[in-house]
Design a protein that fits this description.
mainly alpha, three-stranded mixed sheet, 3% strand
């Protein structure tokens, strides 16, 4: 316990097992990060500049893109800097702050995805009430709820992790300060904390996923009843992108975190974390926009406006 005060930094192992393909692997990771950054930034710019996209669906998508950019930027640049510089350390306070931000932004995404599913439910299942209920004021409040709620849900647990004493080994078998590998370095028994965190996380994940699932069951039932084939197709493609993102997002995180934090294969956890923070964020802008004629039209308008100004 006396040694706990001497730990001022941690060592992030990252993907040390891939040392033979370091350059190619991290270059690919950099490209994926840049694609994610460009894709989500494009969504934010186009939605902000195009009045026809000032609707609840795109407003929530803008917030989701902002959370995605923040989440990937919290993890990936630090890992890339460490890998290219050969220095794999992170200061104690930086490590705790990084873990807090990662889980806070993850919680923001949970809530935002749930709100987006509610928005699609109202648009398809209750179209006559949609304009009355989904007002700009309610959308702003729901968005604020996501950001404040994410902070409020994660802060108590992050504060507890911060106050634990850490002594002896300071090597974290991960590419960021994930809660499980960090807790393995604590000098005290964390079993109770992990059990509470497991119940807490399960309640948040399953509650959010359950609400989204119920919304989409209702949506699919409503789409089936639409008499026009064109109407069914339009309604389906409007929601298919969101359902795809929801499925990938929840399945990966549930597999990673719905078990005691310090358990599980570290290599598998690292690959799943990388999939969640690099591949999915890179893919999401394409999923949301590639089949969306409204967004592509708005993008063309924005590009045309910028050309005229230049």
């Amino acid at each position: 316990m006396a040694n706990a005060t001497f730990i001022t930094e941690f060592v992030l192992l990252g993907f040390s097992e891939l040392h033979e393909v370091d350059l190619g692997f991290y270059t690919l990771l950099l490209l994926m990060y840049l694609l994610s950054l460009v894709g989500h930034s494009l969504i934010i710019i186009v939605v902000s500049m195009e009045p026809k996209l000032h609707t609840p669906m795109y407003f929530f998508l803008l917030n989701f893109s902002a959370a995605e950019i923040s989440l990937t930027t919290t993890e990936i640049p630090k890992m890339l800097v460490n890998s290219f510089s050969g220095k794999n350390t992170i200061c104690f306070a930086c490590c705790m702050a990084q873990g807090f931000m990662v889980f806070t932004l993850g919680a923001v995404e949970f809530i935002t995805l749930t709100v987006m599913s509610f928005d699609r439910y109202m648009a398809i299942c209750k179209p006559l009430l949609y304009q009355t209920i989904m007002t700009s004021g309610l959308c702003r409040k729901l968005s604020l709820l996501a950001w404040i709620g994410g902070f409020g849900l994660v802060f108590p647990q992050s504060a507890m992790v911060w106050t634990y004493p850490y002594c002896g080994h300071n090597v974290i078998d991960h590419f960021f300060c994930d809660v499980g590998p960090v807790l393995q370095l604590a000098c005290v028994d964390t079993t109770v904390f992990e059990l509470v965190g497991l119940i807490y996380g399960a309640a948040i994940m399953w509650g959010s996923f359950g609400f989204s699932l119920i919304s989409y069951v209702c949506i699919i039932f409503t789409i089936i009843q639409i008499p026009s084939a064109t109407g069914r197709s339009k309604a389906f493609f409007t929601c298919a992108s969101h359902l795809t993102v929801v499925t990938m997002f929840y399945m990966v995180l549930m597999f990673m975190y719905l078990r005691p934090s310090t358990h599980g294969d570290s290599r598998l956890n690292k690959m799943l974390s990388l999939f969640h923070t690099s591949f999915i964020p890179m893919l999401n802008p394409f999923i949301y926009t590639i089949r969306n004629s409204d967004f592509k039209t708005a993008l063309w308008r924005v590009v045309t406006k910028m050309k005229r100004r230049s």
